[in-house]
Design brief:
With 317 residues, this protein is mainly β. Helices cover 14% and strands 37% of the residues. It contains 6 helices and 20 strands. Strands 1, 2, 5, 6, 9, 10, 13, 14, 15, 16 and 20 form an 11-stranded mixed β-sheet that branches. It has a 3-stranded antiparallel β-sheet with strand order 11-18-19, with no helix packed on it. It has a two-stranded antiparallel sheet with strand order 3-4. It is globular, with a radius of gyration of 22 Å.
Amino acid sequence: MLRLRIYQPQAHYRVPFTYQRRHTYPIPPYSTVIGFLCNVLGIDDPKKQENLRDEPVILYDELKKIKISIAGSFESKTTEYVWFRNLSTASHIRRFGYAENRSVGGHVEHIGGQSPVSMDILNEVRLVIYLAHEKKAFLEHIRSSLENPVRRLEVLHLGRAEDWIVIEEVSEVSALSNTEGKSQMQEEEKSESNFRVQRVDANFRHFFWIPERIFTGASESTEADPYTKAQGLLYNVPTFWTVVDYEQTLNRHGQRVFEYIRAKLNDGLITGCRFLYDEKLGLPIFLADFGADHKQNMGEDPSGSKPFLSDERQSHE
Protein backbone atom coordinates (compact mmCIF):
# COMPACT_ATOMS: atom_id res chain seq x y z
CA MET A 1 0.00 0.00 0.00
CA LEU A 2 1.19 3.49 -0.87
CA ARG A 3 -0.33 6.63 0.67
CA LEU A 4 -0.22 10.07 -0.95
CA ARG A 5 -1.22 13.32 0.74
CA ILE A 6 -1.75 16.17 -1.69
CA TYR A 7 -2.56 19.86 -1.27
CA GLN A 8 -4.12 22.08 -3.94
CA PRO A 9 -4.78 25.82 -3.48
CA GLN A 10 -7.63 25.52 -5.99
CA ALA A 11 -9.17 22.69 -7.98
CA HIS A 12 -12.07 21.86 -10.26
CA TYR A 13 -13.08 18.22 -10.82
CA ARG A 14 -15.79 18.67 -13.40
CA VAL A 15 -19.04 16.75 -13.22
CA PRO A 16 -19.10 15.66 -16.89
CA PHE A 17 -22.76 16.34 -17.71
CA THR A 18 -22.66 20.01 -16.60
CA TYR A 19 -21.99 22.77 -19.13
CA GLN A 20 -23.14 26.39 -18.65
CA ARG A 21 -22.77 25.96 -14.89
CA ARG A 22 -19.82 23.62 -14.48
CA HIS A 23 -20.22 21.78 -11.21
CA THR A 24 -17.33 20.06 -9.47
CA TYR A 25 -17.10 16.87 -7.47
CA PRO A 26 -15.74 17.51 -3.95
CA ILE A 27 -12.96 14.98 -4.65
CA PRO A 28 -11.49 13.80 -7.96
CA PRO A 29 -13.06 10.79 -9.72
CA TYR A 30 -10.96 7.70 -10.35
CA SER A 31 -10.24 8.69 -13.96
CA THR A 32 -8.59 11.92 -12.77
CA VAL A 33 -6.28 10.03 -10.41
CA ILE A 34 -5.52 7.42 -13.08
CA GLY A 35 -4.65 10.23 -15.52
CA PHE A 36 -2.41 11.74 -12.84
CA LEU A 37 -0.59 8.41 -12.48
CA CYS A 38 -0.18 8.15 -16.26
CA ASN A 39 1.38 11.61 -16.18
CA VAL A 40 3.71 10.72 -13.29
CA LEU A 41 4.82 7.45 -14.89
CA GLY A 42 5.22 8.94 -18.36
CA ILE A 43 2.64 6.63 -19.94
CA ASP A 44 2.05 8.26 -23.32
CA ASP A 45 1.43 4.96 -25.10
CA PRO A 46 -0.66 2.03 -23.79
CA LYS A 47 2.09 -0.36 -24.94
CA LYS A 48 4.97 1.47 -23.26
CA GLN A 49 7.32 -0.87 -21.38
CA GLU A 50 9.55 -0.40 -18.36
CA ASN A 51 11.84 -2.73 -16.42
CA LEU A 52 10.74 -3.29 -12.83
CA ARG A 53 13.43 -5.18 -10.94
CA ASP A 54 14.75 -6.48 -14.26
CA GLU A 55 11.30 -7.67 -15.30
CA PRO A 56 9.90 -6.00 -18.45
CA VAL A 57 6.28 -4.93 -17.97
CA ILE A 58 3.73 -2.91 -19.92
CA LEU A 59 3.03 0.01 -17.60
CA TYR A 60 -0.59 0.61 -18.60
CA ASP A 61 -1.40 -3.10 -18.15
CA GLU A 62 0.06 -2.96 -14.65
CA LEU A 63 -1.82 0.26 -13.92
CA LYS A 64 -5.11 -1.48 -14.76
CA LYS A 65 -4.49 -3.86 -11.84
CA ILE A 66 -4.24 -1.06 -9.30
CA LYS A 67 -6.69 -0.46 -6.45
CA ILE A 68 -7.41 3.18 -5.57
CA SER A 69 -9.00 4.88 -2.56
CA ILE A 70 -9.73 8.62 -2.61
CA ALA A 71 -10.60 10.85 0.35
CA GLY A 72 -10.49 14.62 0.63
CA SER A 73 -11.73 17.87 2.09
CA PHE A 74 -11.81 21.55 1.17
CA GLU A 75 -12.34 24.81 3.04
CA SER A 76 -14.69 26.68 0.71
CA LYS A 77 -16.22 26.76 -2.75
CA THR A 78 -16.43 29.79 -5.01
CA THR A 79 -17.91 30.32 -8.47
CA GLU A 80 -15.89 31.96 -11.23
CA TYR A 81 -17.42 33.62 -14.29
CA VAL A 82 -15.29 32.87 -17.34
CA TRP A 83 -15.51 33.04 -21.12
CA PHE A 84 -15.15 29.89 -23.20
CA ARG A 85 -14.24 30.31 -26.87
CA ASN A 86 -15.72 28.23 -29.68
CA LEU A 87 -13.53 28.16 -32.77
CA SER A 88 -16.10 26.68 -35.14
CA THR A 89 -16.92 28.60 -38.33
CA ALA A 90 -20.60 28.78 -37.38
CA SER A 91 -19.79 30.39 -34.03
CA HIS A 92 -17.44 32.85 -35.72
CA ILE A 93 -20.12 33.91 -38.21
CA ARG A 94 -22.69 34.37 -35.43
CA ARG A 95 -20.25 36.71 -33.71
CA PHE A 96 -18.76 38.61 -36.67
CA GLY A 97 -21.34 38.27 -39.45
CA TYR A 98 -19.14 36.53 -42.03
CA ALA A 99 -16.06 34.28 -41.99
CA GLU A 100 -13.44 36.84 -43.12
CA ASN A 101 -14.41 39.51 -40.58
CA ARG A 102 -12.70 39.88 -37.16
CA SER A 103 -13.94 43.32 -36.16
CA VAL A 104 -16.89 44.10 -33.88
CA GLY A 105 -17.71 47.73 -33.07
CA GLY A 106 -14.41 48.84 -34.54
CA HIS A 107 -12.37 46.47 -32.35
CA VAL A 108 -10.45 43.48 -33.73
CA GLU A 109 -11.11 40.36 -31.68
CA HIS A 110 -9.94 36.77 -31.56
CA ILE A 111 -11.52 34.40 -34.06
CA GLY A 112 -14.54 32.29 -33.10
CA GLY A 113 -17.47 32.85 -30.78
CA GLN A 114 -17.52 32.97 -27.01
CA SER A 115 -19.90 31.86 -24.29
CA PRO A 116 -20.13 32.82 -20.61
CA VAL A 117 -19.63 29.89 -18.24
CA SER A 118 -19.90 29.69 -14.45
CA MET A 119 -17.35 27.32 -12.91
CA ASP A 120 -17.34 26.04 -9.33
CA ILE A 121 -13.89 26.11 -7.74
CA LEU A 122 -12.76 24.32 -4.57
CA ASN A 123 -10.34 26.20 -2.31
CA GLU A 124 -7.69 24.80 0.04
CA VAL A 125 -8.11 21.20 -1.08
CA ARG A 126 -6.43 18.34 0.76
CA LEU A 127 -6.53 14.81 -0.63
CA VAL A 128 -5.48 11.45 0.75
CA ILE A 129 -5.03 8.82 -1.96
CA TYR A 130 -4.20 5.17 -1.29
CA LEU A 131 -2.80 2.84 -3.93
CA ALA A 132 -2.57 -0.95 -3.68
CA HIS A 133 -1.08 -3.40 -6.15
CA GLU A 134 -0.07 -7.04 -6.23
CA LYS A 135 3.47 -6.04 -7.22
CA LYS A 136 5.45 -4.10 -4.67
CA ALA A 137 7.92 -3.13 -7.41
CA PHE A 138 5.17 -1.25 -9.26
CA LEU A 139 4.26 0.79 -6.16
CA GLU A 140 7.96 1.50 -5.61
CA HIS A 141 8.14 2.68 -9.21
CA ILE A 142 5.25 5.09 -8.58
CA ARG A 143 6.90 6.27 -5.37
CA SER A 144 10.26 6.97 -7.00
CA SER A 145 8.51 8.72 -9.92
CA LEU A 146 6.75 11.05 -7.48
CA GLU A 147 9.90 11.79 -5.50
CA ASN A 148 11.87 12.47 -8.68
CA PRO A 149 9.31 13.20 -11.44
CA VAL A 150 11.67 12.98 -14.41
CA ARG A 151 9.26 10.73 -16.31
CA ARG A 152 6.29 13.12 -16.12
CA LEU A 153 4.54 14.15 -19.30
CA GLU A 154 3.30 17.51 -17.98
CA VAL A 155 3.30 19.62 -14.84
CA LEU A 156 1.75 17.48 -12.11
CA HIS A 157 -1.88 18.46 -11.62
CA LEU A 158 -5.27 17.05 -10.63
CA GLY A 159 -8.32 18.41 -12.41
CA ARG A 160 -7.66 21.22 -14.87
CA ALA A 161 -4.17 21.75 -16.27
CA GLU A 162 -3.81 24.82 -14.03
CA ASP A 163 -4.75 22.90 -10.88
CA TRP A 164 -1.16 22.25 -9.78
CA ILE A 165 -0.46 20.11 -6.76
CA VAL A 166 1.83 20.15 -3.73
CA ILE A 167 2.81 16.66 -2.57
CA GLU A 168 2.83 16.69 1.22
CA GLU A 169 3.60 13.02 1.76
CA VAL A 170 4.63 9.96 -0.19
CA SER A 171 4.66 7.11 2.32
CA GLU A 172 6.83 4.04 2.38
CA VAL A 173 5.29 1.03 0.67
CA SER A 174 3.73 -1.16 3.36
CA ALA A 175 1.47 -4.20 3.46
CA LEU A 176 -2.17 -4.61 4.32
CA SER A 177 -3.23 -6.63 7.35
CA ASN A 178 -6.12 -9.03 7.60
CA THR A 179 -9.11 -8.69 9.94
CA GLU A 180 -7.23 -10.32 12.82
CA GLY A 181 -4.29 -7.98 12.50
CA LYS A 182 -1.87 -10.57 11.12
CA SER A 183 0.59 -9.15 8.64
CA GLN A 184 0.41 -10.39 5.06
CA MET A 185 3.94 -9.22 4.29
CA GLN A 186 6.47 -11.67 3.06
CA GLU A 187 8.53 -13.27 5.80
CA GLU A 188 11.52 -11.02 5.25
CA GLU A 189 9.39 -7.90 5.87
CA LYS A 190 8.93 -7.35 9.60
CA SER A 191 7.58 -3.82 9.83
CA GLU A 192 4.16 -3.25 11.42
CA SER A 193 1.25 -2.28 9.20
CA ASN A 194 -0.96 0.71 10.02
CA PHE A 195 -3.81 -0.63 7.86
CA ARG A 196 -6.36 -3.01 9.39
CA VAL A 197 -9.93 -4.05 8.73
CA GLN A 198 -12.09 -2.94 11.65
CA ARG A 199 -15.27 -1.13 12.57
CA VAL A 200 -15.02 2.55 13.46
CA ASP A 201 -18.23 4.58 13.78
CA ALA A 202 -17.53 8.28 13.24
CA ASN A 203 -17.94 11.40 11.15
CA PHE A 204 -14.53 11.54 9.49
CA ARG A 205 -15.12 15.02 7.99
CA HIS A 206 -13.82 13.96 4.61
CA PHE A 207 -15.54 13.05 1.38
CA PHE A 208 -15.05 9.47 0.17
CA TRP A 209 -15.79 7.43 -2.91
CA ILE A 210 -17.24 4.12 -1.67
CA PRO A 211 -17.18 1.75 -4.66
CA GLU A 212 -19.43 -1.23 -5.19
CA ARG A 213 -16.43 -3.53 -5.38
CA ILE A 214 -14.01 -2.94 -2.51
CA PHE A 215 -10.70 -4.71 -1.95
CA THR A 216 -9.68 -5.00 1.71
CA GLY A 217 -7.14 -7.80 1.86
CA ALA A 218 -9.48 -9.58 4.28
CA SER A 219 -10.53 -13.18 3.91
CA GLU A 220 -14.07 -12.59 5.11
CA SER A 221 -16.50 -9.96 6.37
CA THR A 222 -18.95 -10.48 9.24
CA GLU A 223 -20.80 -7.17 8.98
CA ALA A 224 -22.53 -5.13 6.31
CA ASP A 225 -20.22 -3.76 3.67
CA PRO A 226 -19.75 0.03 3.37
CA TYR A 227 -21.29 0.31 -0.10
CA THR A 228 -24.56 -1.18 1.16
CA LYS A 229 -24.57 0.39 4.63
CA ALA A 230 -23.12 3.87 4.22
CA GLN A 231 -25.15 6.77 2.92
CA GLY A 232 -24.16 8.71 -0.17
CA LEU A 233 -25.10 9.84 -3.65
CA LEU A 234 -24.81 7.08 -6.23
CA TYR A 235 -22.73 7.79 -9.34
CA ASN A 236 -21.31 5.97 -12.31
CA VAL A 237 -17.72 7.12 -11.85
CA PRO A 238 -15.29 7.08 -14.81
CA THR A 239 -12.15 4.96 -14.52
CA PHE A 240 -9.97 3.80 -17.41
CA TRP A 241 -10.44 4.79 -21.04
CA THR A 242 -9.50 4.08 -24.62
CA VAL A 243 -8.65 6.77 -27.17
CA VAL A 244 -10.60 6.59 -30.43
CA ASP A 245 -8.37 5.77 -33.44
CA TYR A 246 -5.21 5.95 -31.34
CA GLU A 247 -3.44 3.35 -33.49
CA GLN A 248 -3.86 5.60 -36.53
CA THR A 249 -3.32 9.03 -34.96
CA LEU A 250 -1.05 8.30 -31.95
CA ASN A 251 -2.83 11.26 -30.35
CA ARG A 252 -3.28 10.54 -26.64
CA HIS A 253 -5.43 13.69 -26.32
CA GLY A 254 -8.03 12.38 -28.77
CA GLN A 255 -11.64 11.45 -28.03
CA ARG A 256 -11.86 9.14 -25.02
CA VAL A 257 -14.32 6.35 -24.33
CA PHE A 258 -14.50 5.74 -20.59
CA GLU A 259 -15.26 2.73 -18.46
CA TYR A 260 -17.34 3.26 -15.31
CA ILE A 261 -17.91 1.72 -11.90
CA ARG A 262 -20.70 2.36 -9.44
CA ALA A 263 -19.69 4.25 -6.31
CA LYS A 264 -21.31 6.30 -3.58
CA LEU A 265 -20.09 9.81 -2.77
CA ASN A 266 -20.09 9.88 1.04
CA ASP A 267 -19.70 13.06 3.11
CA GLY A 268 -17.87 11.45 6.03
CA LEU A 269 -20.51 9.87 8.29
CA ILE A 270 -19.93 6.11 8.38
CA THR A 271 -21.41 3.70 10.93
CA GLY A 272 -22.25 0.05 11.31
CA CYS A 273 -19.74 -1.50 8.91
CA ARG A 274 -16.19 -2.78 8.71
CA PHE A 275 -13.57 -1.31 6.42
CA LEU A 276 -9.86 -0.99 5.95
CA TYR A 277 -8.68 1.69 8.38
CA ASP A 278 -5.57 3.86 8.43
CA GLU A 279 -4.67 3.95 12.11
CA LYS A 280 -2.08 6.69 11.60
CA LEU A 281 -4.38 9.23 9.92
CA GLY A 282 -7.63 7.91 11.38
CA LEU A 283 -9.32 7.53 7.98
CA PRO A 284 -11.27 4.75 6.25
CA ILE A 285 -9.81 3.27 3.07
CA PHE A 286 -12.12 2.09 0.29
CA LEU A 287 -9.90 0.54 -2.38
CA ALA A 288 -11.83 0.37 -5.63
CA ASP A 289 -11.39 -3.01 -7.29
CA PHE A 290 -11.76 -2.21 -10.98
CA GLY A 291 -11.51 -5.87 -11.93
CA ALA A 292 -8.95 -7.35 -14.28
CA ASP A 293 -11.56 -7.92 -16.98
CA HIS A 294 -13.06 -4.41 -16.68
CA LYS A 295 -16.61 -5.66 -17.27
CA GLN A 296 -18.03 -2.64 -15.51
CA ASN A 297 -17.90 -0.56 -18.66
CA MET A 298 -20.77 1.95 -18.75
CA GLY A 299 -21.84 0.90 -15.26
CA GLU A 300 -22.43 -2.73 -16.21
CA ASP A 301 -22.46 -5.03 -13.20
CA PRO A 302 -20.15 -7.99 -13.72
CA SER A 303 -21.86 -11.27 -12.90
CA GLY A 304 -20.73 -13.07 -9.81
CA SER A 305 -18.90 -10.09 -8.30
CA LYS A 306 -18.76 -9.63 -4.55
CA PRO A 307 -19.24 -6.01 -3.45
CA PHE A 308 -17.01 -6.11 -0.36
CA LEU A 309 -14.27 -8.55 -1.23
CA SER A 310 -12.06 -9.10 -4.21
CA ASP A 311 -12.08 -12.53 -5.78
CA GLU A 312 -8.30 -12.40 -5.59
CA ARG A 313 -6.60 -14.07 -2.67
CA GLN A 314 -2.96 -13.16 -3.17
CA SER A 315 -1.29 -10.61 -0.92
CA HIS A 316 -1.40 -7.00 -2.12
CA GLU A 317 1.23 -4.54 -0.99
